[in-house]
Design goal:
The protein is an alpha/beta fold. The chain is built from 16 helices and eleven strands. Helix 4 packs antiparallel against helix 12 and helix 12 packs across helix 15. The longest helix has 17 residues. The termini are far apart. The model has no long low-confidence stretch (mean pLDDT 94).
Amino acid sequence: ELEGIVADSATLATNTSSLSVTAIAGRLRRPGRVVGMHFFNPAPVMPLVEIVAGTATDRDVAADAYATAAAWGKTPVHCASTPGFIVNRVARPFYGEGLRLLGEGVADAATIDAIVTGAGGFRMGPFTLMDLVGLDVNLAVSKSVYAQTFHDPRFAPNVIQQSLVDAGRLGRKTGRGFFVYGGDDPTRPEESVQTIVAASTGDLPVVEVVGDLGHATEIVDRIAARGVELVTHAEDDGPGRLRIGDVALVPTDGRTATELAATGVVGTSEVAVFDLVRDWGEAERVAVAEAAQATGHPAAWLALMLGDEVAVSPVGDAPGLVLMRIVAQLASVAADAVLTGVAGPEAIDTAMRLGTNYPAGPLEWVDRLGATTVVAVLDSLRAFYGEDRYRASALLRRAALAGLTLRGGPTS
């Protein structure tokens, strides 16, 4: 109808967040005039605009839309018309892995949210964010992306969310979702977060730093600042770890504490694995899981070393724990978006920082951790569950093999 009214030179721009721009343009005489300009809610405040090119979109039309958004003071990014574009595609694991962890009983919703914010620097955890967006809206987007990707298991919706929607618990707008809002007895999630309280035993013991701690290297500075005596040992055949007597505290590489104890690679059954932390200098919380074989309470040593400054949350012994698992899945989906031509690395990171307020883009996480680490975590998840859901992107695997970053250049 519009095509019969406007001039042939007019551009037709759609704000759809999930419909195919290619399909919208497909029935027009001049499909090259159609482009996506996906603003984020609330549009006057959110800086990001996805400039979405359909299969037939003229390059000049996309360029004009980009320039127009920039002239309005927005931050535009180019992307192709694919399911979910950038943000709604790449963000799916943030919710999906949180729901999976909840469903497996790894931790409750409040604890998962606290780990994601306190260790990862995210402004909100997945459950608080779903309650804010609306569980029905979030579920509809998940179903749309899942259907449009021909049921890629990485984007599968979750029955927990469907059950809450069926019950009318849609989040803040109905007063109840994962948490309760308003009324006489609102849920205060921070009051139910699980935290280990370590009893003081006087002087802290000597902590041995064995091998390379990888992504947890900076924990040494945080511990040393509390006056803990540290002794460094040369690298051995096992994973990098902190050792206190017969206790081994291992930064996650995707393997469970139970597997590390069973294989004997750390030389003890008193094993606890601790989660990824974005910045140990600013960390407020870290997750930890104990091996099923442990007869003591090895996780308590981590709480004792970190003291009151960093809360330690016990979680179930799941591969990748909480933050590392979510970040690895975000990274793999983002890398696949680069591989399949959805958008370039910088556009994806910019979109995720501005469209979802992530503390860092998922590909920035990869370059900081190293592609080798992220691939190892994903491979452990895939081996543990036997599911294609946790396959590592081919782009990630190539970067790991070649020692390259995803945003250009070799690893440091």
